[in-house]
Amino acid sequence: MVFGVHGLPSGLPLLPTSSSGQERRQTADTCFLALVAVVVLTLVSDYCRAFGFESGKDRASEKSKSNGIILLGPWGGNGGISWDDGTYHGVREIIVVYGRCIDSIQMVYDKNGKPVSAEKHGGVGGNQITEIKLQYPEEFLVSVSGHYSPMVHGCSPVIRSLAFKSNKRTFGPFGVEEGTPFTFSMDGGIIVGFNGRCGWYLDAIGFRLSRVQTTKFFQRVQKSLRKLTGTAAKSSAPSSKDGENKVHT
C-alpha cells in the first residue's frame, strides 16, 4: 500500500538517494534554476513596490500613480489655457522670464540621454531672464516652490514667484514673493515633467514626480545570482561517491 503525502508540499524536493550521480546533478540543476527564478521574482517584486508600481487594480483606482508617476498640483489660477509637457527622464534646463510675476517658462528635458526642448509657456513680457542649467544626470530637480496671487484686484491669480531646488543647489526665488505660498518635497523624488496653465503670464504650474533611478536593484540581483551559482557549482562537482568512475593517473 502507498500512503499519500501528508501536509502541503513546499520548498525544494529532496534528492533521491538511489539515483545515479548524473541524475542527482540534473535534479540539483533543476532545483537551482527554480531557486534562481524565485529569487529574481522576489527582487523584481521588491523593486516594483519601491518604485511605486502597483497592480492593475491599484492603477485603476489611483490615477496619480499611473506608471509609477505622481501628479502634483497645479498651483495658481484658472486663467489661460492648459498645457502639459508630458513625462521624461529628467530636467536638463529651465528658462524663466519674469518681472512682477512669472511671465513665461520653458524646459529642456532628457529623453534617452538626449535633450528635448519643450514649448515656451506664457506671454512675451518680462524684463529679466534666467537660464538654469543642471549638471544632468548627476544633478536633478527635486523641488519647486513659489507664490501665486492676482496681479490686479479681482483678477485670476497668476504665478508671482518660483524657486527651484536640485539635489545639489538652490536657484531663485525669481519674481515677487507675494500671495499664497506653495512648495513640495519628497525623499527620493525627481521631477520628470511640468504642466499647468498660461496666457499672458504663467497662470498655474504642476509637476510629475518619479523615483530616482538606482542601480542597487540590479546589483542585488547580480550578487544573489553569483552566490547561487557558486553554491550550485560546488554541489554538482563530480565525486566518486556518486557512482562515477574516478580516473587515476
Number of strands: 13
The backbone outline, from C-alpha atoms, is elongated
CATH classification class of the domain at 69-213:
Mainly Beta
Kindly report the name of the CATH homologous superfamily of the domain at 69-213: Jacalin-like lectin domain
Mean pLDDT: 76
Spell the H/E element sequence.
HHEEEEEEEEEEEEEH
Strand fraction band?
Answer: 35-45%
Secondary-structure class: alpha+beta
Radius of gyration: 29 Å
The CATH topology assignment of the domain at 69-213 is Vitelline Membrane Outer Layer Protein I, subunit A
* Most strands sheet: 5 strands, antiparallel
Total helices: the number is 3
Name given to the CATH architecture of the domain at 69-213: Aligned Prism
Terminus-to-terminus distance: 50 Å
What does this structure look like?
This is Agglutinin alpha chain. Residues 229-249 are annotated as: Disordered. GO terms for molecular function: D-glucose binding; D-mannose binding. By secondary structure, the protein is α+β, with helices and mostly antiparallel strands. It has a domain at 69-213: Jacalin-like lectin domain (Vitelline Membrane Outer Layer Protein I, subunit A, Aligned Prism). 22% of the residues lie in helices and 37% in strands.
